[in-house]
Design goal:
Elements lengths: L4 E6 L3 H11 L5 E7 L2 H11 L3 E4 L8 H10 L6 E6 L4 H10 L3 E4 L4 H12 L7 H11 L20 H11 L4 H8 L3 H15 L4 H10 L4
Helix pairs in contact: 2-3, 3-4, 6-10, 7-9, 7-10, 8-9
């Protein structure tokens, strides 16, 4: 990504949006280009401004943030990633947000530096989930698809190499790129290349979706 990260803030509380704006604009790599107070406004802002990231609240009038996320991600004319930022640490919100296509899930009690880091991670095309949250996602989405019979092969556009399978297994263990590089004794740039190849071959939008696919198909 070149240039500044363009962000739209969607939250029905003006004071919350003002706080997020203050935090994010302290980072000169981030620019807040728009705000929305409802889910419908968030969609309109995303279509008009085409931001890199939409910071999306869940509970909003008119249209909730989960449905707004689903519509934004489904619209091919909107290039934005969605970071859901909510007060509620509820599994149903977490799973619904990821199912809708959100690339990150952050609680509002996170520190200012965590919000800034989350926006940067999501804007870079990665997913923001702590290891313990990743395990909750895997438990919900992977297990029901695993049957007593041998799992089906991964649905890939072309076969994963042995190294790519190894990287995917480590991704499934919630290791970061740096940790994978240390484990495999290779450079972090090489890991990033392997991760990109894995996502492309799986047709996965981010690491979380790739990990869920790996578990569903018995690779991890």
């Amino acid at each position: 990504m070149s240039g500044r990260i363009r962000v739209v803030l969607a939250d029905d509380h003006a004071m919350m949006r003002a706080g997020f704006r203050t935090i994010l604009t302290l980072d000169d790599r981030i620019e807040v280009v728009g705000e929305a107070g409802t889910g419908a406004e968030a969609i309109a802002q995303a279509r008009a401004l085409r931001p890199d990231v939409v910071c999306m609240d869940v509970q909003m009038p008119d249209l909730d943030g989960l449905e707004a996320t689903r519509r934004i991600i489904a619209d091919p004319d909107i290039p934005s990633a969605v970071l859901v930022v909510t007060t509620f640490d509820r599994d149903d919100y977490l799973f619904a947000a990821l199912d809708a296509g959100a690339s990150g899930f952050l609680l509002k009690n996170a520190g200012p530096e965590e919000l800034t880091a989350a926006v940067r991670v999501v804007a870079a095309g990665d997913a923001l989930l702590a290891p313990e949250v990743t395990r909750r996602v895997i438990a919900r989405f992977a297990n029901p698809a695993v049957s007593a019979s041998a799992p089906e092969p991964l649905p890939v556009s072309s076969p994963l190499t042995e190294r790519e399978e190894e990287v995917l297994r480590l991704m499934a263990d919630a290791l970061s790129n740096g940790e994978i590089a240390e484990r495999l004794y290779i450079g972090e740039a090489t890991v990033k290349t392997h991760v990109s190849n894995v996502l492309a071959k799986l047709g996965a939008r981010d690491r979380v979706q790739a990990v869920v696919l790996a578990h569903r198909h018995g690779l991890a």
